[in-house]
Amino acid sequence: MIDYSDMIQPDQGQDARAIHLVDKKSYDGWLKDRSARERAHLAAVGFKPDAFVHAILPGDDPERWGVVTTVADVENLSAWCLAKLAQILPEGRYRVEGRQPGKALFGWMSAQYRFDAYRKKVETKGARVLLTNDVGAIAPMVAEARATALVRDLVNTPAADMGPASIEKAAERIAKAHGGKLSVTKGEALEQGYPMIHAVGRAAAKHHAPRLIEIVWGKEDHPRVALVGKGISFDSGGLDIKPSAGMRLMKKDMGGAAHVLALAELVMAAGLPVRLHCLVAAAENAISADAFRPGDVLKSRLGLTVEIGNTDAEGRLVLGDALAKAGEDKPELILDFATLTGAARVALGPDLPALFANDDSLADDLLKGGSERDDPLWRMPLWDSYADLLETDIADIGNAGSSAFAGTITAALFLKRFIPDNTAWAHFDTFAWRPSAKPGRPKGGAALGLRAAWAMLQVRYDRRSQRGPVGEAS
């Protein structure tokens, strides 16, 4: 496990190499103040202030070199502006000259993530350490880096080693570390109490048996907040089997579970004054003689009957039972995370989670949180006129729309049927994966929407915070 606390240190005047930040507007003025030797060197290497471009600045001796790098705006640093440097610079200490790194602390740590659990030979590289005078920002940034790494680790782990039982072990570690109460429902109790979770997972091998995993934490008189995650450890598509190319990344179909477990740990570690209820519906959507079938009608925990139009629309089924359970304790807020629809990726691509919310204030706070943390979201409409696409002749609702249109919206409308009236709810249809690397964001498992949700929760519930809306002082 990477120790992110080693990567950020208080600036106490230690010896450190300088990082100079420039943008297109400031570059010429900055260059005039450099030595003739540095100017000649930058001219020789053809340095220009383009995005993510950097150059080494020679020092008076071989060990006294520095770095200049281009950012979009030196007065408004993004979380990712130093991430490329953190990936490529040699180990050692660094200091941003003339300003504090701010949000870039997160990107500096995130860039040093690696997943090497399955590599025989692992190249070790010492930490690149960034100094800051903002000592109060270190612990919160480290916590977010660890939460992001947890999501990545869980999603990157192959399905054979990250089945429902392994997801349970991850939840158990988190609960034990922070004084939460873990409970797990499986077997006959799952079949009776959560019939849709059971139906989706009943075809899997015994060691991958389905279960509902719950963590309860916090004082009972605090506001109740429920976090619900889709934990499909592998999705074959069921009898409506996916093509092989469609199955290739389906180890990531438990990405929603990874997000809510990481978010729950952030809440507990920070001591946020809420009564937390974290629920993970964990199952493998496998194929066997006992697999649920197209045309079957399932009874849900809520009592609604669901006709199966497509066994590959299983995520909304397990979430329906988990959301129904969450609503029984009358929380004032429910957030769910799921790798739910390909339609969301067609609409928004891999970087932007589709956000649905039944409360405008909640949606606004989440969007602001995403902007503040450089963890963007895009709100999509809960367009009730499309609810008739989920109608069926023989059951209360169908699990698959009768049209190829608006697939991500109809999935969200299905989930909405399991949310209690007058309960604020937001649904994140997230990809949980990066198909290609960006600075600070490696290819593979990805936390998308996690820090946006955390920013919202801090503003709403952290009584120690004096902020008003996200990013503003009250």
TrEMBL record:
Keyword Transcription regulation tagged: no
Classification via SUPFAM superfamilies: Zn-dependent exopeptidases
GO function terms (MF aspect): manganese ion binding; metalloaminopeptidase activity
Coiled-coil regions, chain positions: none
CDD domains documented for this protein: Peptidase_M17 (cd00433)
Gene3D superfamilies membership: Leucine Aminopeptidase, subunit E, domain 1, Zn peptidases
Keyword Hydrolase included in the entry's annotation: yes
Alphabetical UniProt keywords: Aminopeptidase, Hydrolase, Manganese, Protease
A GO CC term attached to the entry: cytoplasm
Domain Cytosol aminopeptidase: 310-317
GO biological process: proteolysis
InterPro entries to which the protein is assigned, alphabetical: Leucine_aapep/pepB, Macro_dom-like, Peptidase_M17_C, Peptidase_M17_N_1
Superkingdom per UniProt: Bacteria
Protein family: Belongs to the peptidase M17 family.
PANTHER family recorded: LEUCINE AMINOPEPTIDASE-RELATED, PEPTIDASE B
Protein name per the record: Aminopeptidase
Source organism: Sphingopyxis macrogoltabida (Sphingomonas macrogoltabidus)
Organismal lineage: Bacteria, Pseudomonadati, Pseudomonadota, Alphaproteobacteria, Sphingomonadales
